[in-house]
């Protein structure tokens, strides 16, 4: 059941597919893109629960075809020792390299000294890699530490307070974040749990969010998954294969940067929002109003007056406050973001209502030109606002990818070497 | 089984042997011979330094002016067998089944402290595996600590009980938390006996079906929530003291190993993480932080005793542990209201954010502490 590689038990065992996925990813720089080319549902590595290449010019988990499950964690830094924090980034990189390849952390989950707790917590033993990606980001507050004040990019802007925001401090902010996506929930949870454990004493989890269903697709031609309101949203999302649009809207170019932010070349900026839906009142809303609110039909997800979800919308046919009309790039001077959100349900709220909604994740080249103008518009006018409330918020600078087995997360920020 | 009595053991005979060997008697006891132990106020003379494995007999005479206690001890000071309260001028014969190995005979004049020691080598087959004297020293040091905590606790518990029996609600409330400190510092030792902890430290939610609720937390509820002292509480106060005396008597016989010390330290932090940080432990009195501090102190004591060995095997770990103990103690210090062990802010005044900070600091220490046992046995 287990293969031993580098002296440690492997989760990948059983399957030839894991290795195949790895090879496929490794064959092309940026395994995510390679996977996308194979197509989401058709991808053999995905079918077999294979691995997504961890190394690349960009971090995996952005353009990678969206996995089914999410565990997202925001952390606070608990040390003033820069060396200790850099060591953590290196330790995390090593653990992430192993976990994304389907291997157990450190010396594994069994077989070590009986007197010591095992390095790996063990709940992912026997599970395939399930396309696990781990994506690291740095929050604005990190730059108040470790003498990083002059390295904070202007594009990592603090989000203003938007109308209707009801942010819970305990679900907002964070010095850094890790987004874990996988096709198996236990693989994603295992990854965050083990990173948190490695981090004790250096970082502490500030908040975390589980997402059980993807609401976006980064795969062309695939059906857009429905959100908890029963609608498809963001049907014209950027696909992992659209190199041109990724370059234009997602990846930070060298020309975007200055002395402060040169380290971000190849990175991206992430906005995370916990959007609670008033599920019960939405469910009592007439079909007509529901469709008017979104500006789509419920069956196909087609824009008003169109037949298919991917048909180009005719915005003027929609109500002025329809969600699609307000969010569309044509209404926002072309503003486009890469969406990667997940539905969540965290049980009920004590009043018998589902504590559920959308954990919105969006990647962009500059927060000031992406989420901020878009949300200004939506928060002011969107008909959907009657049924939703933004209750958590965070923004992160997501550094470029870990290039190879010697590289580590955040090296370009913390090290002077090129 | 091979007991044969050595009867030539009058004090005079001992004196003769002493004279021959120019110091305390240093002959080997023959198979089954009894060993003469002559205890005085500052001496502990034995007629033999070795004996064959099997039944070992001590013929004890107290020639001192105070009551004494005589024990056969393992190298880590765990008691093989003992006799307490041997009055001045009285004699007692102590027999014990002893396996091959190194032991000490201890006389404790006044029944306190380290006592006066004599070596005893028990020869024969089945000698136990090689022992590490540094680890034996660590265990012995910890046992002494645990004993000291028990010895200090009993009078404090008596004070608590006396206040309850006098019906003095305020005095009882004041005496509650101090009476728990020694217990909380060494809880893993107390818990190792199995039957004492359920009687003294069970919380309302921890009761099993049919179990009568006794001990500190039952009294805590009476004092803070019900705000009254009845006949039942007075009885329970006496019972608490008598259960704690039972604990005090048994500390010397507790099975303590270097691994159990290290794991005990981690378990104390587990106690903090699951019971104190949440405010569940002292839910009526909100004196959780005093227990919290005591748990950390007990863990630190065990750690400091193991550190000489652990720092050799894993210097990075001990460096980390030193840092994290300092950090957690620093956070706790912010909540001090006075110098006494129990002088802390009431836990219901500690905000959610502050609890998060405490919890993070506990996790920061507990994670590396979970690696201490491995560093000790490595």
Helix-strand layout with pairing:
The complex is a heterodimer of chains A (418) and B (378).
Chain A (H helix, E strand, L loop, with lengths): L3 E2 L2 E2 L6 H12 L3 H8 L5 H4 L21 E9 L4 H19 L32 E6 L37 E7 L2 H15 L3 E9 L1 E2 L28 H7 L18 E10 L1 H5 L3 H8 L28 H5 L10 E2 L2 E7 L5 E11 L6 H11 L6 E11 L12 H4 L4
Helix pairs in contact in A: 1-2, 4-5
Chain B lengths: L10 H11 L5 E2 L5 E6 L4 E3 L1 E5 L1 E9 L5 E6 L5 E8 L4 E8 L2 E7 L8 E8 L9 H33 L3 H8 L4 H5 L1 H6 L4 H4 L15 H11 L4 H20 L7 H19 L11 H26 L1 H19 L18 H18 L2 H6 L1
Parallel strand pairs in B: 1-4, 2-5, 4-10
Antiparallel strand pairs in B: 2-3, 5-8, 6-7, 6-9, 9-10
Helix pairs in contact in B: 2-3, 2-8, 2-10, 3-7, 7-8, 9-10, 9-12, 10-11, 11-12
Keywords (chain B): Lipoprotein, Signal
Protein name (chain B): EfeM/EfeO family lipoprotein
Main location (chain B): periplasm
Word description of this protein:
The complex is a heterodimer of chains A (418) and B (378). By secondary structure, chain A is α+β, with helices and mostly antiparallel strands. Helices cover 23% and strands 19% of the residues of chain A. Chain A is built from eleven helices and twelve strands. Chain A has helices spanning 16-27, 31-38, 44-47, 82-100, 185-199, 243-249, 279-283, 287-294, 323-327, 371-381, 411-414, and strands at 4-5, 8-9, 69-77, 133-138, 176-182, 203-211, 213-214, 268-277, 338-339, 342-348, 354-364, 388-398. In chain A, the strands form three sheets. In chain A, strands 7, 8, 9, 10, 11 and 12 form a six-stranded antiparallel β-sheet that branches. A four-stranded antiparallel β-sheet of chain A has the order 4-5-3-6, covered by helices on one side. The two termini of chain A are 42 Å apart. Chain B is built from 13 helices and ten strands.
């Amino acid at each position: 059941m287990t293969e031993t590689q580098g002296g440690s038990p492997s989760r990948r065992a059983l399957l030839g597919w894991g290795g195949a996925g790895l090879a496929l990813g490794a064959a092309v720089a940026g395994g995510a893109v390679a996977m996308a080319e194979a197509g989401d549902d058709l991808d053999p590595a995905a079918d077999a629960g294979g691995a997504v290449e961890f190394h690349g010019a960009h971090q995996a988990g952005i353009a990678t075809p969206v996995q089914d499950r999410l565990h997202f964690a925001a952390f606070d830094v608990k040390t003033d020792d820069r060396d200790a924090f850099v060591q953590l980034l290196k330790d995390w990189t090593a653990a992430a390299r192993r976990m994304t390849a389907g291997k157990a952390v450190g010396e594994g989950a069994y077989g070590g000294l009986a007197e010591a707790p095992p390095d790996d917590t063990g709940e992912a033993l026997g599970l395939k890699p399930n396309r696990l990606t781990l994506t690291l980001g740095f929050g604005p507050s990190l730059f108040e530490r470790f003498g990083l004040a002059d390295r904070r990019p202007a594009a990592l802007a603090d989000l203003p307070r938007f109308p209707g925001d009801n942010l819970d401090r305990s679900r907002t902010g964070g010095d850094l974040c890790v987004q874990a996506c996988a096709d198996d929930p236990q693989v994603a949870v295992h990854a965050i749990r083990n990173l948190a454990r490695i981090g004790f004493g250096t970082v502490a989890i500030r908040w975390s969010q589980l997402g059980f269903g993807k609401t976006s697709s980064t795969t062309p031609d695939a059906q857009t998954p429905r959100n908890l309101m029963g609608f498809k949203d963001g049907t014209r999302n950027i696909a992992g294969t659209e190199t041109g649009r990724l370059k234009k809207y997602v990846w930070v170019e060298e020309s975007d940067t200055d002395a402060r932010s040169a380290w971000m070349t190849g990175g991206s900026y992430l906005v995370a929002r916990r959007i609670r839906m008033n599920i019960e009142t939405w469910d009592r809303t007439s079909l007509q109003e529901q469709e008017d609110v979104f500006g789509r039909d419920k069956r196909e997800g087609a824009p008003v007056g169109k037949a298919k979800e991917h048909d180009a919308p005719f915005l003027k046919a929609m109500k002025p406050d329809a969600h699609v009309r307000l969010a569309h790039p044509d209404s926002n001077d072309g503003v486009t973001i890469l969406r990667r959100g997940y539905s969540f349900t965290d049980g009920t709220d004590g009043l018998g209502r589902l504590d559920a909604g959308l954990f919105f994740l969006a990647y962009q080249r500059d927060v000031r030109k992406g989420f901020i103008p878009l949300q200004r518009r939506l928060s002011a006018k969107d008909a959907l606002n009657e049924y939703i409330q933004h209750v958590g918020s965070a923004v992160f600078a997501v550094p470029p990818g870990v290039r190879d087995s010697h590289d580590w997360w955040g090296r370009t920020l913390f090290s002077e070497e090129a | 089984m091979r007991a044969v009595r050595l009867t030539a053991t009058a004090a005079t005979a001992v004196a003769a042997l002493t004279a021959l060997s120019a110091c305390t008697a240093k002959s080997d006891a023959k198979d089954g011979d009894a060993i003469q132990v002559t205890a005085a106020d500052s001496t502990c003379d034995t007629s033999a330094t070795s004996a064959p494995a099997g039944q070992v007999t001590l013929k004890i005479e107290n020639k001192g002016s105070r009551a004494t206690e005589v024990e056969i001890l393992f190298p880590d000071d765990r008691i093989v067998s003992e006799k307490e309260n041997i009055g001045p001028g009285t004699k007692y014969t102590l027999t014990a089944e002893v396996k091959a190995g190194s032991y000490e005979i201890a006389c404790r004049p006044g029944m306190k402290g380290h006592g006066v020691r004599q070596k005893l080598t028990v020869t024969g087959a089945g000698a136990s595996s090689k022992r590490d004297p540094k680890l034996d020293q660590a265990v012995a040091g910890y046992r002494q600590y645990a004993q000291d905590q028990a010895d200090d606790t009993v009078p404090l518990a008596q004070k608590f009980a006396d206040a309850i029996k006098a019906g003095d609600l305020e005095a009882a409330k004041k005496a509650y938390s101090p009476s728990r400190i020694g217990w909380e510092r060494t809880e893993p030792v107390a818990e190792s006996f199995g039957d004492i902890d359920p009687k003294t430290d069970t919380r309302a939610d921890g009761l099993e079906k049919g179990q009568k609720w006794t001990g500190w937390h039952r009294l805590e509820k009476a004092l803070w929530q019900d705000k009254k002292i009845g006949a039942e509480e007075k009885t329970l106060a006496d019972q608490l003291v008598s259960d704690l005396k039972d604990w005090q008597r048994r500390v010397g016989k507790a099975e303590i190993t270097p691994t159990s010390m290290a794991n005990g330290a981690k378990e104390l932090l587990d106690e903090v993480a699951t019971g104190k940080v949440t405010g569940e432990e002292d839910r009526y009195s909100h004196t959780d932080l005093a227990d919290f501090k005591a748990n950390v102190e007990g863990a630190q004591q065990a750690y400091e005793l193991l550190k000489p060995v652990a720092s050799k095997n894993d210097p990075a770990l001990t460096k980390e542990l030193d840092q994290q103990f300092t950090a957690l103690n620093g956070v706790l210090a912010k909540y001090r209201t006075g110098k006494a062990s129990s002088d802390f802010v009431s836990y219901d005044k500690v905000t959610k954010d502050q609890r998060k900070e405490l919890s993070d600091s506990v996790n920061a220490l507990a994670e590396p502490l979970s690696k201490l046992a491995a560093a000790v046995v490595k």
